[in-house]
Automatic annotation (TrEMBL):
Domain HTH arsR-type span(s) in chain numbering: 1-94
Name the UniProt record assigns to this protein: Helix-turn-helix transcriptional regulator
Organism superkingdom: Bacteria
Organism: Neotabrizicola shimadae
Molecular function via GO: DNA-binding transcription factor activity
CDD domains: HTH_ARSR
Amino acid sequence: MAHHDPDLDRIFQALSDPTRRQMLARLGQGAVPVSELARPTGMALPTILRHLGVLEEAGLIATTKSGRTRLCQARPETLAATADWLSQQRALWEARTDRLEAFLATLEDDDADQPRD
């Protein structure tokens, strides 16, 4: 496993912003135009476009232009890569805590075998 994966870095950086997470949540319901993504945020269009640029660069969304409308859609396969990394980390830490728990159990057993004063 790579210790520094630039793709994962970009994904987690994109997900670190609540506005971008809100946009992804909305896009989870289906593709929408940029104006519909911007409406609940109350932000100016250039700010929204910067957020969308970060999401698109991370591979979390794709945009297509049809006439004067830019349509955004989520790319859930990119989030799957993130879920795989998180799953690996969870397995690693669960194995470590299991070994610690087993070690502590042996210490308790050794302590129980010692004569009391």
